[in-house]
Amino acid sequence: MNNNKEVLNYCPNYYNIVNFDFKEDDIVSDKLIKIYKSYIFSIDINNREEVNCLEELDHVLANYLHDYLFRSTMQKEIVTIKVKKDNHILQHLVDSIIKIFTNYEEYTTRKIYVSRWI
């Protein structure tokens, strides 16, 4: 049975991601969007782990579109991904993309303190 509408309920950024206008020579963005489309329509909607991963991937790619620093970091890091050749290549790629975002978020966020004027 086709669960595309149900899958899109978990992807609030789907249309922004799919319709993202990138430069012609930006191969990484093109591949990421293709991976995104392939992955979201291949998951089992009843598997909670896969749905969580889907939601994370949607969040990561939305940040990829809006955060220039993350986009440049992703373009540098994605070419270093090593994937095992087995039946779960797409899942390994998605996990690696999420891991890159997690590392980026962890190392680039800072605590900002509000100073008080006396």
3D architecture notes:
This protein is mainly alpha-helical and 118 residues long. It is 63% helix and 0% strand. The protein has helices at residues 4-9, 14-18, 27-40, 48-66, 68-77, 89-108. Helix 4 (48-66) crosses helix 5. It starts with a helix and ends in a 10-residue tail after the last helix. The mean pLDDT is 85.
* Portion of residues within helices: 55-70%
Overall average residue pLDDT:
85
Name the structural class: mainly alpha
Low confidence ranges? none
- SSE pattern: HHHHHH
Short description:
63% of the residues lie in helices and 0% in strands.
Labels describing this entry:
mainly alpha; 118 residues; 63% helix
List the helices and strands and how they pair.
Elements: H1 4-9, H2 14-18, H3 27-40, H4 48-66, H5 68-77, H6 89-108
